[in-house]
Amino acid sequence: xxxxxxxxxxxxxxxxxxxxxxxxxxxxxxxxxxxxxxxxxxxxxxxxxxxxxxxxxxxxxxxxxxxxxxxxxxxxxxxxxxxxxxxxxxxxxxxxxxxxxxxxxxxxxxxxxxxxxxxxxxx
Length: 123
Hints:
The protein is mostly helical. The chain has helices spanning about 5-20, 25-35, 35-50, 65-85, 90-105, 110-120; strands spanning about 25, 55, 60-65.
């Protein structure tokens, strides 16, 4: 299920922060994304209502199984396209920016087919 770029970016950021920090709070997300705390709080409430995220009494953010699956899919796409673009000669900063765009618009079928083709060609 597509959530839209903004909410997908929140899930991806929470996943990345969780992997780096272990425990994630809204303020960590706000700092990482350079967003205001109220903007993050609003997104967290939406993600909670859609059952992608839970929040502990101490404010720790936790991806649900559904949230974790989607966040991992998005992050996998991001890493894949960033690596492909760098391999093709794109500057790392530009590859990061472009991968962040591509990860949200490509269909699952197209992503899978491109990934298979790249693997087959031995990139």
